[in-house]
Amino acid sequence: MVINMAYRPLPIGISDFAEMIEKEFYYVDKTLMIKELLDSKAKVTLFTRPRRFGKTLNMSMLRYFFEDDRDSHGNKRDWSHVFAGLKIMETGDKYLAHMGQYPVIYLTFKDTKKESFEESYQQFQMLIAEEYKRHDFLLEDIAHEQDREQYRSIASKRATQVEYQNAIRFLSQRLEAYYGRKPVVLIDEYDVPLENAFTRGFYNKMIDFIRSLFESGLKDNGSLAFAVLTGCLRVSKESIFTGMNNLNIISIRNAKFDEYFGFRADEVQQLCHYYNMDDAYRVVREWYDGYTFGQTDIYNPWSVIQYVDDARANPDWLPMAYWANTSSNSIVRTLIDHSDDDGKMQIEELLAGGSIRVQIHEDITYGEIYDSSDNLWNFMYFTGYFRKISEWMEGSSIYAELVIPNKEVHYIFEQKVQNWFRERMKGRDMTQLYTAFVNKDCAALEEQINDIFEETISYMDQNEYYYHGMVAGLLTGIKGFGLRSNREGGKGRSDLFVRPVRRSREAFVIEFRVAKDIDAMDAMADEALKQIEEKQYDVELRNDGYKYVSCYGIAFCGKECAVHCRDSA
Questions:
Q1: Helices 464-475 and 431-438, interaxial angle, to 10°?
Q2: Coil, strand or helix at 1
Q3: Would you list the DSSP string of 451-474?
Q4: How far is it, in rounded angstroms, from Cα 208 to Cα 165?
């Protein structure tokens, strides 16, 4: 299929607003966020959203709209053209009067993930120094030599840690003195260094540094017009936003700003229609919809764009878990590792399409995530792994009913469960199971399989395909045998062949069934054996030189099984 170049290109990996508009990428208009931000009149606003939901692009949009941008000589650059034809231009003079009127301090913490505090701190030095260099025309207007030297030392990464902790406030003061107007401060991905520091063991040092940076720049800064921050998680006021009564936190629970991060359903429909892909909308909805921000149904914008771009070139393109590739998703594995029997049952309920009940905590810190299962569930909810379908009050506490939002996130869980199970089985002695299987000791084999399944997490709603895969995985390591699944043989397709390397030894055919209740398992196992006989599934093995062939019928109900065996006629 040849892509029609008359269409706008899709913005794969584009997070700079001016580049998005000037290079004519397809843009879903979120500029009315500017109006809502101005209407809120909040001094400091923190937006928490999952990764890859457009936070950086929106922060870039705010910068281009508000900034009185100057080059190294102090000459003003006009960015109004990048907003031409967009919704913000229809709001009137009350809002457009703010365009290009503020000095802006723009910092992104996304690249501060380092091995140690010292390396992370050096990254902070560099990004703050770069922002100072971007405004180096201010030096000509600084009257006192002491202030000029402080500015130069920060810009050249020679300043003390205390000076860097006060760097936002100091630059704000210099900008206000030069422009005669207080600056806007924009900080993107504010919590990336905190999550990284917690993972690597220097959390307290990082908390102390960022707390000081924010207290100085956002709380005690008389030269601040307003500030906007973005991140994945709200970190409690006591931890990092100490005493900041001017902080307005907009999480995924808030109805305010609910449509500006991610795509609404109508926006996705318009996107599919634009690329003549209306038929793809059903797939997009099943895989990438399912989030609820405030009161708005939201699609994952990263995955929608990636899928539409791939499917444009190939109409037969199958959906993928694109979001899974943007992170290790190690939090899912952590959830599994930390889960007791009740927790594993909750995961199974979610994977089966059910829901769980969780008390909501919005003010947890990274240091508290693993303190309780509720904290872990909350972290995953606020970072995009679950969707809230209802919430209510019990006393003074808020509770929510959570589900897995879509097939993409279900796939992430499924893969992590599979990896966890494989690793668990690597460390398990399977000798008794293999011996029981080869000796056709049905009672012992049944007991071994039941013991293993009791420890597992079901991820396929306990259908036949799931059990087939699990048993195949258990038998994969049996010495001297190979496995073949769903092979054509006789008059149908058998579930599983277990074939010895030496043809003088016994081979096996296995057929699986799923029973509706425990009492029906034995009858279903017999039915499986009967099908092997009637369909002559053993013919392929005999034609391949195996003289001795036996058959297993295995029926499952939940995490229990019945194993029946007989020699093939």
A1: 100
A2: coil
A3: HHHHHS---STT-HHHHHHHHHHH
A4: 10
Q: From CA 145, how far away is CA 154, in angstroms rounded?
A: 14
Q: At what angle do helices 117-134 and 145-155 cross, to 10 degrees?
A: 120
* Sign of the CA dihedral with 335 first, then 341, 346, and 347 last: positive
Which two structure tokens, joined as six digits, stand for 545? 């030189």
β-sheet bridge partners, residue 551:
509, 566
Long-range contact list for 163-167, CB < 8 A, 24+ apart?
A: 164/124, 164/125, 164/128, 164/213, 165/209, 165/212, 165/213, 165/216, 166/212, 166/216, 166/217, 167/128, 167/132, 167/213, 167/217
**Buried (b) or exposed (e) across 297-315, using 16+ Cβ within 10 A?**
bbbbbbbbbbbbbbbbeee
Q: DSSP for 382-430?
A: HTTS-EEEEEEEETTEEEEEEE--SHHHHHHHHHHHHHHHHHHHHTS--
Task: Tell me the one-letter amino acid at 318.
Answer: L
Calculate what percentage of the chain has a pLDDT beyond 90. Answer: 73
Q: How far is Cα 528 from Cα 20, in angstroms, rounded to an integer?
A: 59
Q: In what order do the strands lie in the sheet with 397-403?
A: 356-359, 397-403, 387-394
The phi-psi region of residue 276 (left if phi > 0; otherwise alpha if psi is between -120 and 50; otherwise beta) is: left
The CA-based dihedral angle spanning residues 341, 346, 349, 355, taken in that order and rounded to the nearest 10 degrees: 160
CB proximity list for 70: less than 8 A, separation 6 or greater: 76, 77, 135, 137
Give the span between the Cα atoms of 488 and 508, in whole angstroms.
15
Amino acid, res. 525: A
For 566, other C-beta atoms within 10 Å of its C-beta total: 16
Please give the Cα distance from 271 to 257 (Å, whole number).
21
SS3 69: strand
Sign of the four-CA dihedral 281, 283, 286, 292: negative
Q: 29-250, which class in CATH?
A: alpha beta
Domain positions in the chain: 29-250, 263-325, 327-410, 428-567
Q: How many residues does the chain have?
A: 569
- Report the 10 Å Cβ neighbour count for 280: 20
What DSSP element (H or E) covers 187?
strand 184-188
pLDDT digits (tens, 9 = 90+) for 446-482: 999 999 988 888 765 567 888 888 898 899 888 999 9
Angle at 418 between CA 415 and CA 424, to 5 degrees: 140
For 95, other C-beta atoms within 10 Å of its C-beta total 18
How is 488-521 classified by DSSP, letter by letter?
EETTEE-SEEEEESSTTS-EEEEEEEE-SSGGGH
- Alpha-carbon span 432 to 339, nearest angstrom: 27
- Rounded to a whole number of angstroms, the CA Rg of the chain reads 30
Is the distance from CB of 183 to CB of 105 less than 8 angstroms? yes
Q: What is the pLDDT of residues 211-231, one digit of tens each?
A: 999 999 999 899 999 999 999
Distance CA 541, CA 553 (A): 17
pLDDT 10s digits, 264-317 = 999 999 999 999 999 999 999 999 999 999 999 999 999 999 999 999 999 899
Q: Is the pLDDT of residue 487 over 60?
A: no
Name the more confident of 494 and 367: 367
3-state secondary structure of 549: strand
Indicate the pairing of strand 488-489 with strand 492-493. antiparallel
Predicted pLDDT of residue 5 = 54
